[in-house]
Specification:
- Helix content is about 80%, strand content about 0%.
- The protein is mainly alpha-helical and about 80 residues long.
Length: about 80
Amino acid sequence: MFNALKKILFLLPVLLCSLAMVAQPVTDAVPEMADTMRSNGKIYVVVAVVITILAGVFFYLVRLERKINKLEKEG
């Protein structure tokens, strides 16, 4: 009973705060930063870095999975 009351009392201010938030109006459909980076050619550098990081994480997870499977077979 008290746990439910605690949860409600905790969530009430959170819900009230979320109702008070107002979204910003959309003034420009295309961000200026994207146009600037695209015109300078730097957007390709950003994409390359993101792909490199994701590939590294994927490689790490595959290698970790193989090690875990090897340890499971031994034990």
